[in-house]
Amino acid sequence: MLISLLRRVQVYGRTFAIDYSKRDYARHPSLIKLGLTNPVVYRNMSPPELYEHAIDPSFNWTNDPNGKPAHIASSGALVAYSSDRTGRSPKERRIVLDDRTRDHVNWGDINIPMDPLNYKVNWSRSIDYLNMQKRLYVIDGFGGWDPKWRMKIRVICELPYHALFMRNMMVVPKPEELEQFDSGVDFTFINAGMFRADPLNKGVKQKTSVALNFTDSTSCILGTLYAGEMKKGLFGVMNYWMPLKGQLSMHASANEGQNGDVTVFFGLSGTGKTTLSADPRRKLIGDDEHVWTDTGVFNIEGGCYAKCCFLTHEKEPEIYDAIRFGTVLENIKFHDQNNRVVNYDDISITENTRASYPLEFIPGAKIPAIGGHPKNVIFLTCDAYGVLPPVAKLTPEQTMYQFMSGYTAKVAGTEVGIKEPVPSFSTCFGEPFMPLHPYKYAKLLADKMKEHGTKVWLVNSGWSGGAYPKGKRMSLKITRAIIDAIHSGELDKAEFQNFDIFNMQIPKACSGVDPQVLDPKNTWESKEEYDATIKKLAQKFRTNFKRYAKATGEEVIKAGPKSQFSLQYLSLIHISEPTRPLYISYAVFCLKKKKK
């Protein structure tokens, strides 16, 4: 039955080139150099081959109650499970501190240093474990579509589902390009996720350890099967090297209109990057990770990693239809174990259910995934307080401030321990993946924005009518109408009004959106509660930005939300000339009193 399924896929679906003569890669010099001596190594297997290996019952490594390593869903997708780790483990991420990284990395609670000797302990532990396994998989791919800037990446793992996942997420080389990988790669990921890290090793606190070494150009993963660690590890590598070469790496999706106009969507998981960029009227460049170069933007990845919690064909048809043969579904359950029909509403394992599929599975996706300079940049935020407007237009200074702030809410399931939305500031809308100082990325963005006349918008896909859980999540219909108005140029020509404390410009009207919704204060029953809440959020912005004040220009700091006192004293310009000195003297007196 399985063989019959694979044959039908090859005839009616995607065509997979298979070269069995290059499957056995054991004892290749490039692997021996790493210390890998496992006698069974498969290199660059096709999806049908990886399916056959993935459903091998000898691999009993999953939390599936039936004890099977993977399933084939009725749609043809491969369903796999990542055991107890169903999200990233950012607190267990480390970067090796050495002469190369010492002055470049923004060290702190996010970029936690690890000594080179302790990294070697992790590395040796990973290599020794992989050498004892039945078989290993090598997947070679590019990080990036642009030949000028792409990196040669190699992933070595023991699970076929991980191999298929990274085959989807990297840019698959052409047969003639594979020879480049034999002579050496730019970065190597070793995934020994089934083996626990040693908590006695300094810098390792739990069974999980995800470490990057930019001097050796390697990374090793221990104690987690969550496939997203590999994807975000590659993103971290690009976020280190690209800005140092003068190119802006971005935690963002991107698409292209019929006239070649490119829009970039920044945002963390759960804000709508993947959903809003999958527009049937526009070509998808990518859903998560891009680089803005001197010539335009390119997608870092060869595929998409979409959330599929409560997924329906009605709400997200492009993503729903992309889940077919070749797709990896992670941590999902079925309506019925026998018929293998996926139940997207079942989140008993995790809310962070995911689908990994090649970019080409999205109708109209742009291949190669390269576009021109963006016409519009959109900052997507999921405001759990419910006080930010559905859309606001930003100045270059406000762009840098909001970009460095990266305000949103952590959405349930994307990190271990997150069960409900939590207000959070994640600089550059991707702090866990940004090794350098935020100002480095923000300055590159502002410079490119000014050079190419790019418009920047803040779009709130979070709560309206009240803070979580009283308010309601902004409907996708409203957010799509706003995005459409941005693309058509309607909002750029709209009449705007000032948005009080945050001093941003919000439109008075937008096609398809109730004007009352455009000003969030109108949606709250209690105006007093709204005023108290927005002041509370503004204070959180100001407190958070103190982290960056020393390395940031005064004009950027001033672009943030104003305090209550600042708003009162800014209004002095409206006071008549004869009485203005008296009011100014009183204002100075109040400020001095406040400081005391």
Question: Which key terms come to mind for this protein?
Answer:
596 residues; alpha/beta; 28% helix; disordered N terminus
What does this structure look like?
α3 runs antiparallel to α5 (160-169) and α10 packs antiparallel against α11 (438-452). Helix content is 28%, strand content 22%. The strands form seven sheets. Strands 11, 12, 13, 14, 15, 21, 22, 23 and 26 form a nine-stranded mixed β-sheet that branches. By secondary structure, the protein is of the alpha/beta class. The protein contains 17 helices and 30 strands. The protein is globular, with a radius of gyration of 25 Å.
Portion in beta strands: 15-25%
Q: For the CA atoms, what is the radius of gyration?
A: 25 Å
The helix/strand class is alpha/beta
Principal-axes geometry comes out as globular
Q: What profile does the largest beta sheet have?
A: 9 strands, mixed
Helix content percent band: 25-40%
Number of alpha- plus pi-helical segments: 17
Distance between the termini: 79 Å
Which regions contain 5 or more consecutive residues with pLDDT less than 50?
1-22, 565-577
DSSP strand count = 30
Average pLDDT confidence is 88
Offer a quick outline of the entry.
The protein is an alpha/beta fold and 596 residues long. It is built from 17 helices and 30 strands.
Task: Tell me the layout of helices and strands.
Elements: H1 2-12, H2 29-32, E1 41-43, H3 47-54, E2 70-72, E3 78-80, E4 93-96, E5 112-114, H4 116-131, E6 136-143, E7 151-157, H5 160-169, H6 179-182, E8 187-192, E9 209-213, E10 218-222, H7 228-244, E11 248-256, E12 262-266, H8 273-277, E13 283-286, E14 289-292, E15 297-299, E16 303-307, H9 317-322, E17 328-330, E18 333-336, E19 341-343, E20 354-358, E21 370-371, E22 374-381, E23 391-394, H10 396-405, E24 407-410, E25 422-425, H11 438-452, E26 455-460, E27 463-464, E28 472-473, H12 476-488, E29 496-499, E30 504-507, H13 515-518, H14 527-545, H15 554-557, H16 564-570, H17 580-595
Helix pairs in contact: 3-5, 10-11
